[in-house]
Amino acid sequence: MSKTVFVTGATGLLGRQVVQAFDRAGWTAVGSGFSRAKPPSILKVDLENQGAIEGALDETEPQVIVHCAANRFPDKCDADPDGTRALNIAAARRVAQAARSRSILIIYISTDYVFSGALGEAPYEADATPKPPNLYGQTKLAGEKAVFEECGDSGLGIVLRVPVLYGHTETNAESAVNVLVDAVWKAQEKDVQVSMDDWSLRYPTNTEDVARVLVDIATKYLVADEARVAMPKILQFSSEQSFTKFQMCRIFSEILGLPLTGMMGQSSGPSSAAAARPYDTHLSTKVLRGLGIDIRTMKFEDWWYVLWV
């Protein structure tokens, strides 16, 4: 039996890899986007339009939806709270509503920022009490709740929380990790001193690993059929390697053979002018392990070495 997956946000950092991973696994992978959509390879679907969502699903007839579309940059969320709520909450509800009425499994991509990240709390289990530190985390948590509300007890709504992501990009600015490479190059300029966070712990996870895990989750839950009602609804995936942004920059400088004298690590928390950032939101992968999902991740340094050397 042929299988079809519908990927929202397929023009984005994670969405592109998700489409490729399902395609390699033998699925028919249909991607959707909006501002960067390039029909017919990527369908243009307005997630603010319920009819457009339903029309796309009726046309493609997927068994699974992977909902990647989101505003995922905390500072941009603060700058446009209404637009962020429209995409991270209202659009998620529309997609989930359309999925439930068609008996389609939906996997909603969420974030480690649903947790406070307070000192001493991590690692967070999937059933830990959320306490988002900023608007981004608040809207993603609300998106989780919207999916569960729409899917009810059908077993069709699944959440996968992931940390900060890196990987192949169209521009470095697509990733909060990749963009640090630009900061390393900026630090090479004469009389420039770049300040970089050396306080908050991050667990950079490669988009290819996340995409692989999504294929495994979709396959397992689809095969389970009605039995998935009793399966876990909140899943978490993360690399186990932790770095501050400054430590990541140091790795980049070493691989590139560049000095880092033009960059200074800041060991205090973020300034009040920026969206609040947690200290440590390490996600436990215990639930995925219990399902028999392969949670191995590529080594951070190795991926960049292969990319550049």
Summarize the structure.
Helix content is about 40%, strand content about 15%.
Features:
single chain; 309 residues; alpha/beta; 7-stranded parallel beta sheet; two-stranded parallel sheet; 11 strands; 39% helix; globular
Secondary-structure map with pairings?
Blueprint: E1 4-8, H1 13-24, E2 28-33, E3 42-44, H2 50-60, E4 64-67, H3 74-79, H4 81-101, E5 105-111, H5 135-151, E6 157-162, E7 165-166, H6 179-186, E8 194-197, E9 205-206, H7 207-224, E10 234-236, H8 245-256, E11 263-266, H9 286-290, H10 300-308
Parallel strand pairs: 1-2, 1-4, 2-3, 4-5, 5-6, 6-10, 7-9, 8-11
Helix pairs in contact: 1-7, 2-4, 4-5, 6-8, 8-10
Describe this structure in words.
- The protein is of the alpha/beta class and 309 residues long.
- It is 39% helix and 15% strand.
- The protein contains ten helices and eleven strands.
- A seven-stranded parallel sheet has the order 3-2-1-4-5-6-10, sandwiched between helices. A two-stranded parallel sheet has the order 7-9. Strands 8-11 form a two-stranded parallel sheet.
- Strand 1 (4-8), helix 1 (13-24) and strand 2 form a beta-alpha-beta unit.
- Helix 1 (13-24) crosses helix 7, helix 4 runs parallel beside helix 5 and helix 8 packs parallel to helix 10 (300-308).
- The longest helix is centred in the N-terminal third of the chain and has 21 residues, at 81-101.
N-to-C CA distance = 42 Å
Overall spatial form: globular
Q: How is the biggest beta sheet arranged?
A: 7 strands, parallel
Note the beta-strand portion.
5-15%
Number of helices: 10
Detail the poorly predicted runs.
Answer: none
Mean pLDDT: 95
Number of strands: 11
The helicity comes to 25-40%
Q: C-alpha Rg, in Å?
A: 19 Å
The topology string of helices and strands comes to: EHEEHEHHEHEEHEEHEHEHH
Structural class: alpha/beta
